[in-house]
Amino acid sequence: MNEFIQAFQTAGHGVAYAVLVLCCAGAVGLGFGNIGYKGIKLGIGGALFSGIAFAHFGVTINGNILEFVREFGLILFVYSIGVQVGPGFFASLRHHGLVLNGLAAAIVVFGTATAVIVHLLSGLELPAVLGILSGATTNTPSLAAAQQVLSEFGGGEQSGEILGMAYAVAYPFGIMGILITMLLIRFAFRVHVAGEAEAFDTRRRAGILPMETMNIAVLNPNMDGLKLKNIPGFNALDVTISRVLHDGRQLVADPNHRLKTGDVVLAIGPAERLKDLRLILGQESDIDLKAMPSDLKWERMVVTNAKALGKSISEMRFRSRFGVTISRVNRSGVELTPSAALHLQFGDILTVIGEEDRIREVVAVIGNKAKKLQHAQIAPIFIGIALGVLVGSIPLHIPGMPAAVKLGLAGGPLIVAIIFSRLGHVGPLVWFMPPPVNAALREIGIVLFLTCVGLKSGGAFVDTLVNGPGLTWMFYGVFITLVPLLFVAVAARIVLKQNYLVLCGVLAGSMTDPPALAFANSLSSSEAQALSYAAVYPLTMFLRVIAPQIVVFLFY
Fold this sequence. Notes:
Elements lengths: L1 H9 L4 H19 L2 E2 L2 E2 L4 H11 L6 H60 L3 H11 L3 H13 L4 H32 L4 H13 L5 E8 L15 H4 L2 E7 L2 E4 L11 E7 H11 E3 L11 E7 L10 H4 L1 H5 L2 E7 L2 E3 L12 E7 H11 L11 H15 L15 H16 L1 E2 L2 E2 L4 H23 L3 H7 L2 H25 L5 H11 L3 H10 L4 H28 L1
Antiparallel strand pairs: 1-2, 3-6, 3-7, 4-5, 4-6, 8-11, 9-10, 9-11, 12-13
């Protein structure tokens, strides 16, 4: 049996064996993570401890394979998160970004100051403190920056080894500390997660006025003979007129149609704006144009034709080419006013009104192939990841810093995914990922990452704890993890009245910790966690990378 295992380990340079170990450790970890007590589960975090257990008993894989799978898993996770939050990221940043980034920055500064205090009061050597700080905040780029700057300041190989071991010892509780903080805040403030999700969605929708319809009779004599497009203040009202009842016949609304006293128009828009239009035209009519027999039909169709992407409604010339009007545009569940300047994106759902034959002609230019929404666009995924890796590898030189700052393999793909998913498409390339595909990539990526982290640190984990300074390092790591998180989280909840799910995203983002975000996402299907995580991630990554460099510059 041993000969078979040895042969299996060496076959194909250990690739088959590595896949076997990763799959087994991942499956065991997920099973362990699903074991709960009173609703509390490790969830995806079980993969980390499964990897540690496997490594402790001597089951590990080739180091090069381990490093590749770990980083690739991380890339898959953060890229999927970026695609998910991209469409709503910039709006979220405008509304709440300053406060959220302030909270995240406070956690970084408070944590770094705590580590410095530990160094000054305990006399613990600086390489160990920096390793503990990087592990306690689950930030690998911080570890790499500390190793690089120590090397430039004359630190030997031993300093690098101490850094790595301290990082490995502090890392597991770094992850657990964030989860514990989330749970403590939840139970201390008796948070109702579903209520918090609903509150977030309500607040997010507050700036989006719901679309309604109104039949308005034209009774104002000043409107007689006036073209629709010349109605005073019509463009500012942000409403659409889709049909006109003129001389007993329903017509598709045309900007050049001349109103006549007694006409009835069907207007679509926010309720308050419709009331303003009613005051201009006349009064609300008892006639319901939608219920009247007519040659006009309406149909919803989805934008899937690449040639239509990025074009505005005016550029598509729906009225002049097809004699139809677009009465509504639904984008990601939000009703938008179909203004002339609105640019179409993949997946937009248009409500088209016109004669049946003409509606059929519109399908040819819109696409209306709903099945395309169920298929992932594979080429953009590869292109996006490649660009993300390039962006993450660009060194950013900051005056006074001995080492360049990089976004790394976590920050680069995240930012590129946010930008491209917000754009929607670039030429024929569509940055759209069906939710089930996104969820699958995200889960696979984080399980691979956590399993590899456990396999890498698990071999010496127990020995360092039992026979070395591991317990001392772990104690300081717990202190550096929990104190800043709890202090800022409690203050944010009590003083700033922050939404719990938003706060969870900030806590995970302040540690640039994908596993913590995965745990926060498991609490609710709301986008609050991912949006706040993405909002604070760039600044936090920057601060996490320069913090150890400043500490070395001041104290080494």
